[in-house]
Amino acid sequence: MPNLQGSLPPELANNVVRLYRECLRRATFIGKQQHNTELVVGMVRQQFKKHMNETDPEKIQKLKDDAARVLINHMLFESAKLTGRKVGQRS
Predict the structure, then answer these.
(1) How far apart are CA 85 and CA 65, in angstroms?
(2) Residue/partner pairs of 15-22 with CB below 8 Å, 24 or more apart
(3) Among candidates 43, 39, 36, which has minimal Cα distance to 70?
(4) In angstroms, rounded to a whole number, what is the distance separating the alpha carbons of residues 2 and 4?
(5) Backbone region of residue 88 per phi and psi (left: phi > 0; alpha: psi in -120 to 50; beta: other values)
(6) Residue ranges of the alpha helices (H) in the chain?
(7) 14: Cβ–Cβ under 8 A, 6 or more apart, which residues?
(8) What is the pLDDT along the chain (91 residues), one digit of tens a residue?
(9) By C-alpha distance, which of 37, 36, 66 is closest to 50?
(10) What is the crossing angle of helices 16-34 and 37-50, to 10°?
(11) Residue 65, class by beta-carbon neighbours within 10 Å (0-12 exposed, 13-18 middle, 19+ buried)?
């Protein structure tokens, strides 16, 4: 599976704390739109807390890739909403 973190800025992709903060920002944004901020933010916190003691570098990389994938998908979705296109639609 390709490393998805190349799609994110290196300072975010290489730093778990920054990735966590960005996930929380996105969760807050989504939560405010859907009026369930506490639930969405809680889910993000729970996932990061669940894996906070992970030491296997490969597993950590997979977890970071998964988080990056969610961020990228959300950014694509928001971009598509702004442009009026469906996600995956080409110009």
Answers:
(1) 26
(2) 16/60, 16/64, 19/64, 19/67, 19/68, 19/71, 20/44, 20/48, 22/71
(3) 43
(4) 6
(5) left
(6) 10-13, 16-34, 37-50, 57-83
(7) 5
(8) 445 445 556 655 567 888 888 889 988 988 898 888 999 899 899 989 998 888 887 888 888 888 888 888 888 888 888 888 775 655 5
(9) 66
(10) 160
(11) middle
Residues in the chain: 91
In the chain, what is the greatest distance between 2 CA atoms, to the nearest angstrom?
A: 44
What DSSP character marks residue 2?
Answer: -
Structure-token pair, residue 77: 């979705």
Tokens of 16: 């778990």
